[in-house]
Amino acid sequence: MDLHGVTALVPAGPVLEGREPLREGDVWLAGGTWLFSEPQPGARRLLDLGALGWDPLRLDGGGALHVAATCTVEELTGWAAAPPLVARCTDAFLAGWKVQGVATVGGNLVTALPAAPVVSLLAALDGVAELWTPAAGGPPRRRLLPVAELVTGDRATALATGELVREVVVPASSLAARTAFRRATLTPLGRSASLVVGRLDGAARVGGAPGGLVVTVTAALRAPLQLRWTSPDALVAAGGPEAAAAALDAAADGSEPRRTWHDDVHGHPAWRRAMALVQVREVTAELLGEPA
Ligand SMILES: Cc1cc2nc3c(=O)[nH]c(=O)nc-3n(C[C@H](O)[C@H](O)[C@H](O)COP(=O)(O)OP(=O)(O)OC[C@H]3O[C@@H](n4cnc5c(N)ncnc54)[C@H](O)[C@@H]3O)c2cc1C
Hints:
CATH topology of the largest domain: Uridine Diphospho-n-acetylenolpyruvylglucosamine Reductase, domain 3
Bound molecules: flavin-adenine dinucleotide
CATH class of the largest domain: Alpha Beta
C-alpha cells in the first residue's frame, strides 16, 4: 500500500517524552499490518513505536502480567508461562507467521475488529490498559481503562485523539483462573463469528470460597460484553447455565454497539446469537461441573 499523504517516518520517543508536539496527521505505527493494508488519507507522519524498547512481557512482584503494547502476537503466544487460553485465542488470528511475528497487542486492540483475538483474550482476563496522552514539555498524562471498555464498537475505541496504549496489566488471579473456551466460525478456517470465554478465579469453586465467575462474549457482538456473578453458587441459585444464556439474551438489547449482534460476511446476526447462547450455556456448565 502506498501511503501518498505520509511525508515522514520518525521514532515516537520525542513526542512521548514531550520534547516534540503531536501534529495533525500524526499516526502511531506498530507492526503496520493493518496500517499498511488500507488507504490512510489523514496520515501525514508515522510515529514508530517499534524503537521504544519496551519489555514485551513482564511479571511484577504481585504476579500480575504487564503486556507492552508493542509485544507481538508471536511473543505473547510463545510466552513460556502462558495459560492455555492464550494460544486458544491467538490461534483465532487468521494470519500466517509473518504477520503474527510483527502484529502487536496494541495494534490489535486499537484496530478493534469484533473478531480481534487479543481483545477476546485480554477482555476475558479483565486486563486493564494503561493509556498515555503526550503532553508538551513533560511526561505523558496517564489513565487506566479495562480492555472490555477500551473497545466500544466495530473498529471503534474509547481512545482520545493522540492517545496511546502503553501496556495491558493482567491480574494474577486471572492468570491462575480456570477458563472455558468456545469459538464458532462459519467456515473451518473462518474468522471468529462468536467467541465466548468463561473464567472462574482461583478460590472460586461451587460450594467453596466466594470468587467471581465472568463470561466474556466477543465477535458475536460489536464490542466485548461481560456477564458477572459474585460466585459460582450465585449463578447456580439464579438458575445455572440456562439463566446465564438468558442474561446474555436480555443484555443484547441493541441499545449500544456492545449489546448489538454483529453482522458481516462472517456470520448473520441471528446465527451469531444462536451460537453465543449455546456457548454461554456450555462454558458455564463446564465451569460449574455440570453436564453441558
Ligand atoms: C493477512 C492478515 C490477516 C489478519 N487477520 C486478522 C484477524 O484475524 N483478526 C484481527 O483482529 N486482525 C487481523 N488482521 C489485521 C491486523 O493485522 C491486526 O489487527 C494486527 O494486530 C494489527 O497490529 P499492528 O501492530 O500491525 O498495528 P498497525 O497496523 O501498526 O496499527 C493498527 C492501528 O492501531 C494504531 N495503533 C497501533 N499501536 C497503537 C498503540 N499502542 N496505541 C494506540 N494506537 C495504536 C495505529 O495507529 C493504527 O491505527 C490481519 C491482517 C492481515 C494483513
